């Protein structure tokens, strides 16, 4: 009996050891696959649900002469993906997004840095920034069009007005919430003024700054789409122009196809910010699992 | 109003190779104003000689940490005078206060960089300092990947990187388990002897104070006053569980109890 128990125990021990013996690479590969799958299946499920509801509405015959089913729309999208027009439009829109958001980061960053460090500025400009943030950016377009005319500058202007306040606020929040203990430690180390900024306050504000960037991007993307629908520039196809043309021609299949493109682009950039955010959290040890 | 005077190294003749000393003369610190004013320290006079390891002990709320902040120059006394001689004052906090965006080595290196040490020398000194606190091989780890004891070692290496003559320590081992604390006591002993540091060490652990200090200063609570001083004539190396340490710790504890019962607990 005792011998039997011992044999069982040894068998179990060998089994446990074999589990641990799996090479780290193998384990990491398995973990990565599990993680990717865990991230993918909800997305796939969501897409399937949307497609199913869409197909059901289509089958019900609601507005059937205007409202296309997923099949027709997706084949329209597939067709457009093989035209240079759509890619040209995506290029224009992406270029505006990059330039507009880039300028917003620059301007918002500088304003945020100044406001967070200079006390008198803070009282005056601080509340102004928060006020600007509540302003729906589309309301700026009449102002921008009168000021700059129907051109890209008007669109960039509104993107910057939409995104810069969030970015500035992110930086200000980051500076404000620099842990006092770290500031004490930095001061005792001999960090002063500029070096204190460069080596302590800026890195300490990074997570809040990235959160501000993410929010700023959301505003920039909305402002850009509004701008492209309002500021139609001849011979310069953009996603907004394509959408607007579809509206004029009551081309619902193409309109939904473009909406899908816009949605996907927005999600991709959002994911990039999410990735940056998670990267920082992991490096700083702020996540529960490492 | 008085302020912290940091005397330049060149104007003070070195005392047996040790520069750092701390002197508090009639120092009081009041927080707030009017009826809500709290007197944290009341006419505290204290002198720490160059190379001396002084432990400050007292119940919570006795203004121990305030006293260290005053010596560090992080706060100004309401009245009285605080002066330190020596080139620099380093501070070790109860928490490691490491920068989470830097590796262990990066944290130590930043302290060297703040003093303007060149790149090549920085790298070499960082390695040496990590070796001093027995953390060679852990330089590339980030603070959250280290244990509590290891983090405090990094904080110690960072404090040493400042080449300070005076080291202020605010319950640096308070959050560690007894075993880890014991090991760090030995290391602190060794490092202080090798570098001839002047240390002002705040703790509420009487045995720790007796284990480490050349002298133990007892503070009263609300407001903080110096009520007793004990010399620790026990030869080093010491053990926290040795009879002489326990015996002196008991005497210090008795004095503390007496004070606390007068205070109403």
Description of the molecule:
The complex is a heterodimer of chains A (290) and B (265). Chain A has 290 residues and is mainly α. Chain A has a single domain (72-284), classed as MetI-like (MetI-like fold). Chain A has helices at residues 2-21, 24-60, 70-80, 84-117, 119-134, 141-148, 152-176, 180-189, 193-230, 239-248, 252-284. Chain A is flat, with a radius of gyration of 26 Å. The mean pLDDT of chain A is 88. Chain B is α/β, with parallel strands linked by helices and 265 residues long. Chain B folds into 2 domains: 1-88 and 165-177 and 189-265, 3-Layer(aba) Sandwich (Rossmann fold), CATH 3.40.50.300; 98-163, no CATH class. Helices cover 35% and strands 24% of the residues of chain B. Chain B contains 7 helices and 10 strands. The longest helix of chain B has 21 residues, at 243-263. The model of chain B is unreliable at 1-15 (pLDDT under 50).
For the largest beta-sheet of chain B, the strand count, sense and barrel status come to: 6 strands, mixed
CATH level 3 topology of the largest domain in chain B: Rossmann fold
What is the number of domains of chain B?
2
So what's the CATH class of the largest domain in chain B? Alpha Beta
Q: Report the end-to-end length of chain A measured between terminal Cα atoms.
A: 44 Å
Look up the CATH topology of chain A. MetI-like fold
Helices and strands of chain B, in N-to-C order? EEEEHEEHHHEHEHEEH
SSE layout and pairings?
The complex is a heterodimer of chains A (290) and B (265).
Chain A: H1 2-21, H2 24-60, H3 70-80, H4 84-117, H5 119-134, H6 141-148, H7 152-176, H8 180-189, H9 193-230, H10 239-248, H11 252-284
Helix pairs in contact in A: 3-11, 4-5, 4-7, 4-9, 4-10, 5-7, 6-7, 7-9, 9-10, 9-11, 10-11
Chain B: E1 5-7, E2 21-31, E3 38-48, E4 53-57, H1 64-72, E5 79-85, E6 89-92, H2 104-114, H3 119-132, H4 148-161, E7 166-170, H5 178-195, E8 198-203, H6 206-212, E9 215-219, E10 226-231, H7 243-263
Parallel strand pairs in B: 1-5, 4-8, 4-9, 6-7, 7-8
Antiparallel strand pairs in B: 2-3, 2-5, 9-10
